[in-house]
Amino acid sequence: MKKPSTPRSGFTLIELLTVIAIIGILASILIPAVGKVREVANKSKSSSNMRSIAVSYATYSTSGGRVRTLTEARMTADPDVTLSNVAGVAQFLAKQVDLTDASIWIIESDPAVASYASTLPAIVGFRNSSNAFETATEWTRDVPVGYDFAIGISGNAPTSTTPLLWTRALETTGTWGQDSPWGLGGHIAYLDGHVSFYTELGPEDGQLIDPDDGSLTTNIEDIHVPANIMTAPDYTGS
For labeling, which of 5, 27, 29, 44 is most exposed (least CB within 10 Å)? Predict the structure, then answer.
């Protein structure tokens, strides 16, 4: 009498290799797609944060029934503004209009964040029991802020074409440098609060408008003199 065959208890080598190959193919398709979705989500969040900063600046600028301009002299005269770069702008707005959330100024996917050795701050500052403004201990000049900011903007500047802040490392050539959080391209937020993303400034992707003569330009310094551009630290190579 013939013995019944014993059921197999495992996979053959060919079956295992086939499964591994299928998993590899699926991973090669899905991993880039997931990365792209995350990048789009991070860019959308950054755009929203920049809009919040622009709206907060507009609130400061137009409060009290008159147009106020944030200048270096105004920042220097404020004893609670202890930082001179864009981190100082964040201090100023935190005090003036309660824009205290530190995460608004930071791009989570920024390589500078990953290499930042200290604790990331949760807030820029706060009101103490006497209602006086205090800067958070963690908020320092070297915090990896993702944006540069323009001060000294005239109250008569056209709101829809005047850049207020932009993704860090925008160069005068209209491209974003090695220090850019996105690696290629960046956002620009305008005085009226709208935000646009540019791969680079140029005829194809869009250009800035020189307020002096209305001509198109890729040079941010045609809009703002360098002394009025409050920059984040240079994180290149960090």
Answer: 5
